[in-house]
Design the sequence.
């Protein structure tokens, strides 16, 4: 392998990115996990962007594929069977009580109120809800006939919006306050640190629960609260310790000697050097925000019409969790999406860690 | 050192005061109050509403109520619970808190120890296939959406396989003829756990300085064996012997939550341990140890892991606060009647005194663990220790 940091001049000139970006991208590419995480995030971003495009282009019609109010019915013919009593199991056809009625069958007791004359062996036409995955519905439909894939797309929009909003907010607040605390020191520093102590002291999830239960919480409220809590809380301490390391570097001293004002030194010398670490914290903050949103909507406390947490909440309240893998398209996708997206952000954070912390690079 | 601790204590006083004000404002900024629905009842005259409001002291101005609240907080008076009427919030908390503490103390000790060992192995085997796979597994368990994962485990172990109970604290049908209340049995279990973990701790501390690795291992194994025999005798004789079947019932219900939370919680420690130990392995004294010809295991366990333990252990104390976060979710999924369930229930039923008491109590818990973390930082980190003297 040739020396990576000296990319050939011709290549460098052809690329639209600056050499710094190229070098950092090369370093980032070294960690395979970071790359995997990056592709996971891109995948979900594509999902989030595709949904409006599908609707606008007319490929999906609104009243079938809408994640909240869409409805599609799939007509099926089922054979009416008479299930044996629980004590008679196992019979030659069914092993356990859960096996009856099987695929393409329906119990006569279910049919009785609607078709009193039907006998076992007859065919019964009905709408299949929830429907298994098909070409029309890539991940099937849920118990109300809504497209699960469309819900996943909607959920990823919510996750990206909330995560990026709250992470940007918290990191920008924390970077500003952290540099101020490190640079001014004294009373400002003491005040900011005690404030961070106070926020760290408040247990976060119970606080969110209380706010969500007592006030009507929308997603952007949650983003705001998470952003402020993160921005004034522990992040300030981390950014401050980073800024303290930058503050004692020689170039800050020389800037001061040559007569730079405090504000100028802070904005043009300290902030740019703290920014990479802030970016790193931002990636981790996104994970926390996605988790908080999913947990709150899983507990049914968030005023939101569709998100991944909501999908798990619905799967649980509709009783599909204990059906296990029989209705896997309702149970698995939402949980796996949360896991993979937050995992993706975490892995990218690890990759960035390798870029910004040279000590951790492989020997 | 004492100076430093004193300074920290002094700094925590205003922080705690602010926390009290904050929690009061949080609960009192909602529109209306718990008795507004009386106004909807046309049968009741408005005077009745005024009377009820006056009884509960809600007619006083906000600042007066705030001072009353702070005053009553230090006297341990939180009023009465609305939903469990004759009981006070303190009664409820003293009933629910031990269950949370027991569950999460066990989980944290197990998770910390597993995380420590896994992280150690990960850093040592850097670049091998094993490392990749275990890191993948720990990243998965670190980022898995925990409520969903717990539900899937509940489905698999509790329902599909039927090995473990599906949630709850005990099987009520087994307790019909029990001469003891569940709490009595549970307190015996707590005492047993505390004593046996102390004994384990002492075995480890006392055998720490034995030089030969095999001799040290043998000493520890003997200690374990003695502990197991003694606890076997304890649970089969006297008072505890009668309680043992019931205690086993509770322990049986604890297995699944402990397993699931451990699986989720160990990864944080493991990943942190991996990073710190990788930094330690680059130090010069590791090279020296290699040059001296010490065995690999000795370098790993005594030179590298011991040093890397320090930041991991202090960060672990900070995670005591996240116990509370985890408790809310875990207890609600596994129907484990602890503080998390109490908090969520009281919130959903608008039982404000209990919710306030829970929240303040969790805050105090977090405060104490913060203080402990700070003090242990100061104790373990020579830079702070020396800095405070000079």
Sequence:
């Amino acid at each position: 392998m040739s020396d990576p940091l000296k990319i050939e001049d011709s290549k460098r000139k052809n690329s639209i990115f600056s050499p710094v970006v190229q070098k950092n991208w090369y370093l980032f590419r070294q960690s395979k996990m970071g790359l995997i995480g990056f592709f996971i995030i891109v995948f979900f971003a594509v999902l989030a962007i595709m949904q409006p495009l599908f609707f606008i282009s007319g490929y999906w019609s609104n009243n079938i594929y809408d994640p909240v109010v869409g409805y599609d019915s799939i007509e099926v013919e089922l054979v009416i069977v008479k299930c044996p009593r629980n004590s008679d199991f196992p019979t030659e056809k069914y092993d356990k009580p859960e096996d009856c009625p099987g695929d393409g069958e329906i119990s006569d007791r279910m049919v009785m109120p609607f078709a009193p004359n039907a006998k076992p062996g007859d065919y019964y036409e009905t709408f299949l809800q929830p429907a298994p995955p098909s070409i029309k519905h890539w991940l099937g439909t849920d118990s109300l006939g809504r497209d699960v894939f469309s819900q996943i797309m909607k959920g990823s929009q919510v996750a990206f919006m909330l995560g990026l909003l709250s992470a940007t907010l918290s990191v920008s607040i924390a970077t500003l306050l952290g540099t101020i605390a490190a640079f001014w020191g004294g009373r400002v520093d003491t005040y900011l640190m005690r404030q961070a102590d106070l926020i760290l002291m408040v247990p976060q999830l119970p606080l969110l629960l209380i706010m969500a239960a007592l006030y009507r919480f929308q997603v952007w409220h949650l983003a705001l609260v998470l952003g402020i809590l993160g921005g004034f809380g522990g992040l300030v301490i981390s950014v401050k310790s980073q800024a303290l390391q930058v503050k004692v570097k020689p170039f800050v001293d020389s800037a001061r000697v040559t007569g730079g004002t405090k504000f100028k030194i802070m904005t043009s010398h300290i902030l740019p050097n703290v920014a990479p670490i802030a970016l790193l914290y931002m990636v981790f903050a996104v994970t926390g925000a996605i988790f908080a949103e999913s947990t709150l909507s899983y507990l049914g406390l968030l005023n939101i019409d569709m998100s991944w947490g909501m999908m798990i909440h619905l799967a649980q309240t509709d009783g599909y969790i204990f059906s296990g893998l029989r209705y896997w398209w309702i149970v698995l996708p939402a949980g796996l999406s949360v896991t993979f997206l937050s995992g993706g952000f975490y892995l990218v954070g690890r990759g960035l860690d390798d870029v910004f912390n040279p000590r951790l690079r492989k020997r | 050192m004492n100076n430093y601790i004193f300074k920290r204590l002094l700094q925590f006083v205003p922080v705690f005061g602010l926390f009290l004000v904050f929690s009061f404002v949080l609960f009192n900024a909602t529109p209306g109050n718990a008795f507004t629905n009386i106004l909807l009842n046309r049968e009741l005259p408005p005077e009745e509403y005024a009377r009820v409001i006056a009884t509960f002291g809600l007619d006083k101005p906000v600042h007066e109520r705030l001072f009353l609240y702070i005053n009553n907080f230090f006297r341990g008076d939180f009023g009465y619970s609305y939903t469990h009427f004759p009981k006070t919030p303190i009664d409820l908390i003293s009933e629910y808190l031990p269950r949370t503490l027991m569950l999460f103390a066990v989980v944290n000790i197990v998770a910390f120890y597993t995380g420590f060992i896994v992280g150690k192995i990960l850093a040592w085997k850097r670049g091998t296939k094993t490392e990749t796979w275990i890191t993948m597994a720990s990243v998965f368990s670190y980022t898995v959406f925990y409520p969903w994962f717990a539900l899937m485990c509940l489905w698999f172990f509790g329902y599909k396989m039927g090995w473990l109970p599906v949630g709850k604290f005990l099987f009520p049908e087994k307790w019909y003829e029990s001469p003891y209340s569940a709490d009595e049995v549970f307190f015996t279990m707590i005492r047993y756990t505390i004593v046996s973990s102390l004994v384990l701790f002492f075995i480890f501390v006392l055998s720490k300085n034995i030089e030969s690795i095999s001799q040290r291992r043998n000493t520890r194994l003997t200690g374990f064996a003695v502990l197991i025999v003694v606890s076997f005798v304890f649970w089969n004789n006297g008072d505890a012997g009668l309680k043992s079947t019931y205690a086993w019932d509770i322990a049986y219900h604890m297995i699944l939550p402990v397993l699931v939370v451990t699986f989720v919680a160990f990864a944080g420690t493991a990943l942190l341990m991996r990073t710190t130990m990788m930094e330690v392995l680059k130090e010069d004294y590791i090279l020296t140890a290699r040059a001296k010809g010490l065995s690999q295991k000795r370098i790993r366990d005594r030179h590298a892991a011991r040093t890397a333990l320090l930041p991991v252990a202090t960060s672990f104390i900070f995670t005591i606060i996240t116990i509370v976060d985890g408790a809310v979710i875990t207890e609600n999924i596994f129907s484990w009647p602890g503080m998390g369930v109490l908090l969520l229930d009281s919130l959903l039923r608008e039982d404000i005194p209990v919710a306030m008491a829970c929240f303040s109590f969790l805050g105090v818990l977090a405060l104490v663990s913060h203080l402990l973390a700070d003090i242990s930082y100061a104790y373990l980190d020579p830079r702070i220790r020396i800095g405070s003297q000079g």
Notes: Residues 238-280 of chain B form the longest helix (43 residues). Residues 100 and 349 of chain B are 21 Å apart (CA to CA). Chain B touches chain A through 52 residues (CB under 8 Å).
